[in-house]
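TODO from last week: model Exodeoxyribonuclease 7 small subunit.
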Amino acid sequence: MAANTTETAIGYEQARDELIEVVRRLEAGGTTLEESLALWERGEELAKVCRRWLEGARARLDAALAGEEGPADQEE
């Protein structure tokens, strides 16, 4: 249920920025196994949030483009 809360609570830019920070911390090392696992899990959750935002944006763009093509096709 936490993933659903995160998905509705933060926007794309916030999720992306936090994901960048998670990756930076994982790459830097120096964390315990437990901390690394928690960071990995958070990163996966944030990646899903970003993916959903991008998929939604793509769907809206596709719908807008399809709407623009519709009347033009009818005029011809």
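Done. The chain has one domain: 2-75.
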